[in-house]
Amino acid sequence: LFTAVEMAPRDPILGLNEQFVSDSNPNKVNLGVGVYFDDNGKLPLLQCVQAAEKTMMAQPTARGYLPIDGIVAYDNAVKALVFGADSDVVTSGRVSTVQAIGGTGGLKIGADFLKKVSPDAQVLISDPSWENHRAIFENAGFKVGNYAYYDAAKRAINFEGMLASLNAAAPGTIVVLHACCHNPTGYDITAAQWDQVIAAVKAKNLTAFLDMAYQGFGQGIAEDGAVIAKFVAAGLDILVSTSFSKSFSLYGERVGALSVVAASADEAKRVLSQLKIVIRTNYSNPPIHGGAVVAAVLTNPELRALWEKELGEMRVRIKAMRQKLVDGLKAAGVQQDMSFITTQVGMFSYSGLSKDQMVRLRSEFGVYGTDTGRMCVAALNSKNIDYVCQAIAKVI
Ligand code: PMP
Q1: Mutate to test the pocket of ligand 1, among 243, 250, 374, 377 (most ligand atoms within 8 A of CB)
Q2: Is the whole model's pTM more than 0.90, yes or no?
Q3: Cβ 103 under 6 angstroms from ligand 1
Q4: 65-151+169-186+203-287 belongs to which CATH class?
Q5: Catalytic residue positions?
Q6: Which CATH number fits domain 12-45+304-395: 3.90.1150.10, 3.10.290.10, 3.30.1390.20, 1.10.730.10?
Q7: Is 213 in the pocket of ligand 1 (CB under 6 A)?
Q8: What helix, strand, coil percent values describe the chain, rounded to 5?
Q9: pLDDT at residue 10 greater than cutoff 90
Q10: Could you report the predicted ipTM of this complex, rounded to two decimals?
Q11: Which helix (H) or strand (E) holds 374?
């Protein structure tokens, strides 16, 4: 039966991780995978999460099946977070939100649903984008192309090119947009540029699918979420995937969501019924624990405040590491202006290093980033930063 099955290529990032684990260099630093580590190089277990779990443990509950679309309180908390609890779009019942298995699950449910609604649409993702975007939409049966995004020579966003790509897209094209903290480049467009993107989406009758995997890591929870309100204010029907993997440091719990904004409450109900079929025929219903923790934190004022504080600390620490990287590279003798690192936001930096330089960083110094030059600045800390700066300076 399986004689003709070919070996699939290794996942580029997880493959890098395996290589890192087996590297015997005592100074090795993993800047490959997109995970936030604290200043001690440890994956944090947030206090708000621990407090919520403690309360849950004090009142143990049996584990029946969840509804297909997940925990009601969770879905409502996601709606409130992403759109605002009192926003017209939520109070008028135009948003359908389902709990999903991480942000990836939200994208997958959305992709499968869109394939039913617009089977012939093309999908456009940013050039470059998170690797899984292409794979998720191709596996859902779509043809996936790119819209211009990054200009490597200028180390900046090619915004003219981005708009030109959108304006050239056929009506109905699905455009996957990074709501904030673009992965892999770290470059976000400005609020004024978002207005132009929204105008193009509207004029060309495109479908915007906003991937929000890093809400709170850019400028702040509300600031990062503001782009969603802009799309809604423009009267657009959109899809939004949410991930709490990073913002709650709950990677392995797989907590995410998909929200779909429809034109009316009636339409939203019909959309929800279809989302439920996608879920039912994939994995039936989501797991309880991670969603229950996030719902408990988001709906309890004290825990919510604690979460905002802890998320703020992660955001501030990343920004400080960006500055230290720029300063440290200068001190290590790098002549070229590396200050672009501090204009980038979120967990990643497109360093501008070539594949050869990234390979040297790995083999000679045990500093792991992707071949594209992407480094996870959220894995830098006060102990490894000098070593990383020295290593980068030597390969530049
Ligand atoms: N979208 C983007 C842009 C991401 O970077 C990630 C995580 N690396 C995801 C979605 C998926 O998030 P999750 O781990 O919650 O599935």
Answers
A1: 243
A2: yes
A3: yes
A4: alpha beta
A5: 130, 211, 246
A6: 3.90.1150.10
A7: yes
A8: 50, 15, 40
A9: no
A10: 0.99
A11: strand 374-376
